[in-house]
């Protein structure tokens, strides 16, 4: 089976590529902006014609799209999260119409929901910001493409290698710098919102299953932990794992909140459809994820600066 992974060096893409490599009978190709890519491509600027020609050369049986802008600015979000999937779908229709497309969406596409509500794939989509809106546009492009395609709407990924731009990764980096200093202050801002955290290794396993399982799949599947956790609990648990002895500052202006989830106090996904379609459910607890995150953070080279 020939599988092309776009964004294969990113956080999610790296874990997905790693699990695909471990499968027998798979020939894996990496695509993206990394110098090691088998297919050098930037979906934000690629033309349909150029991408179709490249895809024809690789003749993939499946394509996994892990690319995505993380809410840095509206233009980049639109180019990568909305335009990119549309161009990819158009190119696949020309060059590899029988290939399965697995596209990583985001639970941010749902926006705010009532406290205690688990959103299903048929729940209304009311994204609260540019990130969620552009991810939703990408989902619409994929779901309406006519291809053998599925969108995995991923919750808040956490676990080994979490990048510093994510709240778990940023918190781990700051905890490492703080060490066990009892006078240290960790300024993160208000932490009362609830999020559905899912281990990155569980996300990768869902993507592998979606890529390889035979037969048609639903257009959209939620991939999350299936429960809502206060962000405060994640931070304090990670601080305990790190042996942090200082103070956590939760005042509203103490830290910059995530632009991806501004205004969303509760997010939790119903994952029953993924269990039925893929035979998938999370294997890692949040405690497992945070222990693995801290171990991976401690294994990184020491940095003199941090975000």
TrEMBL record:
Domain NAD-dependent epimerase/dehydratase: start-end pairs: 3-224
InterPro entries per UniProt: Epimerase_deHydtase, NAD(P)-bd_dom_sf
Family as reported in the entry's similarity comment: Belongs to the NAD(P)-dependent epimerase/dehydratase family.
The protein, known as: NAD(P)-dependent oxidoreductase
Organism for this UniProt entry: Streptomyces formicae
């Amino acid at each position: 089976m020939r599988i092309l992974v776009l964004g294969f060096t990113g956080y999610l893409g790296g874990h997905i590529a790693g699990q695909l490599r471990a499968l027998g009978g798979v020939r894996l190709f990496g695509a993206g902006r990394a110098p090691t890519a088998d297919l050098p491509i930037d979906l934000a600027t690629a033309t349909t014609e150029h991408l179709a020609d490249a895809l024809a050369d690789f003749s993939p049986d499946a394509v996994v799209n892990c690319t995505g802008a993380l809410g840095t600015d509206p233009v980049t979000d639109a180019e990568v999260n909305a335009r990119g999937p549309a161009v990819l779908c158009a190119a696949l229709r020309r060059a590899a119409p029988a290939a399965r497309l697995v596209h990583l969406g985001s639970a941010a596409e749902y926006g705010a929901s009532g406290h205690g509500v688990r959103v299903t794939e048929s729940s209304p989509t009311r994204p609260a910001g540019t990130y969620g809106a552009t991810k939703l546009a990408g989902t619409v492009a994929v779901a309406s493409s006519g291809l053998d395609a599925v969108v995995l709407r991923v919750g808040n990924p956490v676990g080994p290698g979490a990048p510093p731009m994510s709240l778990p990764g940023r918190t781990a980096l700051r905890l490492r710098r703080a060490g066990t200093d009892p006078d240290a202050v960790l300024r993160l801002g208000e932490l009362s919102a609830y999020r559905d955290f899912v281990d990155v290794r569980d996300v990768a396993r869902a993507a592998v299953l979606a890529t390889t399982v035979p037969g048609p799949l639903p257009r959209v599947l939620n991939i999350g932990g299936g429960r809502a956790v206060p962000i405060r609990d994640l931070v304090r648990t990670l601080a305990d794992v790190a042996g942090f002895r200082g103070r956590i500052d939760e005042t509203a202006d103490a830290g910059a909140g995530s632009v991806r989830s501004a205004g969303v106090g509760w997010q939790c996904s119903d994952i029953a459809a993924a269990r039925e379609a893929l035979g998938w459910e999370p294997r890692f607890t949040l405690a497992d994820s945070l222990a693995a995150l801290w171990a991976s953070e401690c294994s990184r080279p020491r940095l003199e600066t941090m975000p």
